[in-house]
Amino acid sequence: MTYPGLPDQQHPRPSTVKPGVAVGILVAVIALVAFCITGFAAPGFLLRKGPGLSLPVPTAGSAPTSAPTSTTESPSSTRVSRPRITVTRRPAAPPEKGVQVITDFLAKIAGSDKPAAIALACEAQKRFMDDKIDSLLPLGSRVHVTTANGTSRFVLADVAGVAKGRSAKGIVISDQMADGGFCITNFSIRTA
């Protein structure tokens, strides 16, 4: 007996994936995963062609040399150690103009010239500088640049000195403007 809307149970639908194909795909995936794991667990096993040179990993205590050295462990193997080279990049000196703006800003604060100090701030920051100077770096504070770092577009200067009658340190940041000059964008000073 057949019911309308239900499939005929005596004739099931044929499966879309044959069991042999599914098993073949599964075996291929497992083989690929095993191959990748072996490749990462034993680096270089694909490139090794017979007895070759095995390169040791330099130890932390080894001193760099200027030329490779070789030692013979047995007549059939040779070990080559290569010099360890460390490249260090020295940061570029910050732009003189950026450091000078920070120095001028601190000099205006020390000289109690608030309008001139605010004039050195970037346009977007000028409205905040009046309150910021009063709360963090009051007029008359004697703070100077200790170190300066940065790029061609900004300078971050570490500063130290006396503010509010106490020892103080912090940072002052200047950014490059569209015309190539620099202006003060931010500063943060803490007293001890």
Keywords for this structure?
about 190 residues, about 25% strand, two-stranded antiparallel ribbon, about 30% helix, four-stranded antiparallel sheet
- The average pLDDT value, as a whole number, equals 78
Structural class of the helix and strand makeup? alpha+beta
Structural shape: elongated
Order of helices and strands: HEEHHHEEEE
Separation, N- and C-terminal Cα atoms: 94 Å
User: Sheet with the most strands?
Assistant: 4 strands, antiparallel
Q: Tally the beta strands.
A: 6
- H/I helix tally: 4
Helix content: 25-40%
* Sheet with most strands: strand arrangement: 3-4-5-6
Quaternary status: single chain
Strand content: 25-35%
Radius of gyration: 35 Å
Model regions low in confidence, pLDDT < 50 over at least 5 residues: none
Please give a structural write-up.
The chain has 192 residues and is of the alpha+beta class. The protein is built from 4 helices and 6 strands. The strands form 2 sheets. The chain has a 4-stranded antiparallel beta sheet with strand order 3-4-5-6, covered by helices on one side. Strands 1-2 form a two-stranded antiparallel ribbon. A hairpin with a 2-residue loop joins β4 and β5 (166-176). The longest helix has 23 residues, at 19-41. It is elongated, with a radius of gyration of 35 Å. The mean pLDDT is 78.
